[in-house]
Amino acid sequence: MTILSIEHVSKTYGKLHSVRDVSLELGAGERIALLGHNGAGKTTLMRMILGLTPVSAGQIRVLGRAPGSRKARTAIGFLPESVAFHGALTGREQLHHFARLKGVKTALADTLLERVGLTHAMNRKIRTYSKGMRQRIGLAQALLGQPRLALLDEPTSGLDPISRHEFYDIVDDLAKGGTAVLLSSHALTELESRTDRIAIMSKGHLLANDSLAALRHAARLPIRVKVRATAETADQVADALGGTRVNGASVSLEVQQEQKLSLLGQITGLGDVVKDIDVTPASLEELYRHYSVPTKGGE
Amino acid sequence: MMSVLAIMRLELLIARRNMWVATSLILMGLFSSVLTLAGGAPTGTLGVDPLLVATTSITTLSVYLIPLIGLLLSFDAIAGEAERGTLALSLTYPLSRGEILLGKFLAHLLVLGFAVAVGLALTAGLTIWKYGAADLSYWPLLKLFLTALALGAAFLGIGYTISALARQTGVASGIVIIIWLICVVLYDLGLLGALVADAGGSFTKTLFPWLLVANPADAFRLINMPVETVATLASGIGAAGGASGLAGQLTSLLAWPVLALFLAWLAFRRVEP
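Output (structure tokens, whole complex):
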């Protein structure tokens, strides 16, 4: 079921085109990561989905409703980039307030505080919270009432690695419950195993929108193979496979996907001289660089 | 409706934490007590209702204090939230901007009303303590309370309008102080100057009474000072302004809150967080 549909949406501020002809669909339970430089148009796109900023052209529908309509807003959980709250309130008071606005029982808010690991600090004023703790309150309010669509703008900034891991566990649970998740992030490595699709934006254009595997395939970025031998045998390995020697005892090669298996066969054929092999496909960072280099002229 | 109550509840909590409630209470309580105790002294055996004397002094004071408290409570309401970044998140929740504004307004009006009520209760209590409960008329006190609410509501609305237009608390606070100065001091001075220059001409008779009540602070002053009291206790421009009558004063005091809140809503609607 389509939760969010974005059709040929553009946003212009005077002469500045911050989003250009972006189309994207998001189904129930899907997790999409939206990648892009600062100023690529990610936040503007989210603000248009929320109805905070009107679209200049095209159409956005949240569960078939116009963005900003009461039904659409009820269906969305939003975590803004650098989320802020009134410092004079306690975490619990703030979350109870949001629960009332969403028409959710306040007892549920307490459960969410526990879910994001803030029970110990919930009666402290928010001004005493660390950035990570405020981010957790932000996540908790976005989860209120099991939203049909979760928009998370740079959700893991300010979180330590352990908290990031916990955060993605919560996102996974959310998606399993049927919530469509659209999240933007700069921390690319953490997204690789945690999203179903990757959408890449640059200068307002949507340049890629597919699964990681499909993006890798389409980009045809080489796979890096590193073969470890010994200082004595490295030359022999390099001669046989045709790579470059690195670190004295290893040989590094780059191949395309279709050559990978034959290369591995060749390496196995070398026998005992091979001590170890590392096969690294193109990382998300490399893919991101590949796709975000402007290919469309006239920019 | 539940959203309005939720916003109101949160704003009351914040007002209490920010000491706005305490500040308003101390201001109104302190001045009311001092004026009641000191204001009664010169009347002696003149036979003037001591409560009337007290309310007259408190009216004069309220003309300055109520707009000030109203503006102080409201100038941060929208600009502050926009600046802190809390507004964008609030606006993604299923409630309208009108509901947000109404919730804040009700909370702030409650704070203001509470402060005024405590001040006036102190006045009544102290008067009874000094002169006994007999022969006191409580109508002026009640009238003062109700019109103070209207005056406060008008300035709350003006404060929200400026808060929404300025979008920065620093700018908003500067503008509200200027507005306050104009409404409670400069406006009257200007009119007085015009009055003197006109020397009893057509301006004094036709335009002036209406210009005077057009300022809610002056309408409040006129409505709470009986003409004879104005004449005996507060020689001022009130006597000349009486010409617009109660209807004009009431219209001003009732129309200003509605108009100011409507303007605030219009300005708030244009705010893109």
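Chain A has a mean pLDDT of 89.
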